[in-house]
Amino acid sequence: MRNFLAIDAGGTSTRAVLINSSGQCLGYGTAGGGNPVSRGFDAALAALLDASRKATGGTAGEVAEVLVAMAGASLELPTHLFRDGFAELGLTGKVMIESDLLATFYSGTYHDDGLALIAGTGAVGARVVSSRLEAVTDGTGWLLGDNGAGFWLGREIVRAVAAALDGRGQATSLTLLVLAELGVTLDPGERTQGRLRAQQQLILKVYELPAIELSRFAPLVFQVKDDAVAQDIIDRAAQALTQTLLAASRAGNGPGEADGRQWQPGAQPLVFGGSVLTKGGAVAAAVVGRLSAAMPGAGGPAGISPVLVEDGVVGASVMVLKRSGIQVDAPIFARIQQSLAALRGGK
Amino acid sequence: MRNFLAIDAGGTSTRAVLINSSGQCLGYGTAGGGNPVSRGFDAALAALLDASRKATGGTAGEVAEVLVAMAGASLELPTHLFRDGFAELGLTGKVMIESDLLATFYSGTYHDDGLALIAGTGAVGARVVSSRLEAVTDGTGWLLGDNGAGFWLGREIVRAVAAALDGRGQATSLTLLVLAELGVTLDPGERTQGRLRAQQQLILKVYELPAIELSRFAPLVFQVKDDAVAQDIIDRAAQALTQTLLAASRAGNGPGEADGRQWQPGAQPLVFGGSVLTKGGAVAAAVVGRLSAAMPGAGGPAGISPVLVEDGVVGASVMVLKRSGIQVDAPIFARIQQSLAALRGGK
Q1: Which CATH class, in words, describes the domain spanning A114-145+233-309?
Q2: Complex confidence, ipTM
Q3: Which long-range contacts (CB under 8 A, 24 or more apart) does B276-279 make?
Q4: Which pTM was predicted?
């Protein structure tokens, strides 16, 4: 029985699991952001080691391999420095860097072919074929895309409010929620230079924020009820996310190739991750509806059942076993899920 | 006969005119950015004085009043410092700060009631009633709005290209133009980590630019022919700009008030400014078409004839006379236009 470390390194937090070759999770630890692109290499490595130390409980047992799932896994990283760092934790083998997309996918399934859609602050679709990323769609960041994700939602919300305030757009309950969030009061009679004072204040306050902070307004769209503007934003988010998913599902066939590599609804898993899909139920349901309409063979919305996953930590655990030559089947997958849930529940 | 200085102070350049009370422009000068918000107060004042010195030709004649048109005219500025600065140029009266929107409006008309739409990097609509800004719509900046303007167009273009490259969106001729602008070559076979290398390069290059720089791609949308994606972007820009204009045209009537203050097509002028409207003919034509459809009484597109203006320098000249109690009529307006064109033609 060998032990492994599986690490899900995100931009703001890092999760590490000590797992043995039968899929039993033995220890779990968390730390701050572990992505070298956003945090710098030294701080990221320190976070990986911090979380790992907590997972191993400080014992100096042997660790056969380490797998780190992170965004930007395709970057050339000085992995020998990773290896040196993990030596103190008993690492005898190598450090493998894998995509966070694959880790999210494997958090929902142990199969090696399927489809994933993740919508957190950003949005990305992935087609997995034979355990590799065959196609990645969107995930192009806040300026170029990430359509339907948290930043996109927040931006559409504040744009709708700005439009409602000067009569370009429909009135919406989002207005008072956004203004309250920014500490601005709305007095319909207070105007200067042709503008409502509330709109001038909205402009001032929004440009004081770093642009990416607009994602903080995203949850508001799910709070209002019977609001046509909010519903339109949710519909357009679902439409964009469905396009991202459909583009990923079609990918992998060269010109003239048969549909053999295309995603098969029902036969292959569909994994949903990220707060917009896992917490904003309306978006996930609308994506399923649109997807089933676009795939007549799927047997309607009931034929498409996405697995919702919280993060990539189960998937990193699945991958460290797979990449070390251990076959992960249904019982092992269930053991990973259950033993990890028990460890995380205790945190 | 008194002399006046009229100054159109923009973010990147400043234009000054020496004009007499009969509307004869006597001198013209330009300098760098003269907006205190974007340039700082001292640099802005230096630019205003630099352009003014060129306009007065260095002669120490008397200047009765100075009018400066600029964005952010509603800000509280230390105008006594302006006055001290202009004393060396013979100023005997006051320095008036006015909105750049009004200056653009008056560049197209000497009437005191009408409508203006400006779409340069940003987009803003204005309803002018009795020589004052009755309503200002949009102009809310690149994150909150400026819908249909240069930054908006540039962003939609790069988003469409990002979508075309991973199959979320339709193929478009914009792709090769944008990639060429960024020095990226497109090899449809070159993929890593599930992505086209060209898309990875697009992402890298776009995020190296300051966000607001996306406006540099705007002209590309007018270069491609018979391209459905480009046409869709132009249509949506025209739709957004029409909403901005219609919201401004409706404004000024309180609840239950009659339509007396509403813009009357044909009877009151419509002024178009900014490069998206004055250089991208397709957008201006589409806005006129949509506006006439929304205003059945306007007599079709032929009943709506916008006056295109290049900047706010004619308008600043009109305003310095009006604000000094001089009535500007058709002959004086024509004299301002003609004498200024002669001076500018000689530059």
Answers
A1: alpha beta
A2: 0.89
A3: B276/B119, B276/B120, B276/B123, B276/B148, B276/B149, B276/B150, B276/B153, B276/B218, B276/B237, B276/B241, B277/B117, B277/B118, B277/B119, B277/B241, B277/B306, B277/B308, B278/B308, B278/B309, B278/B310
A4: 0.90
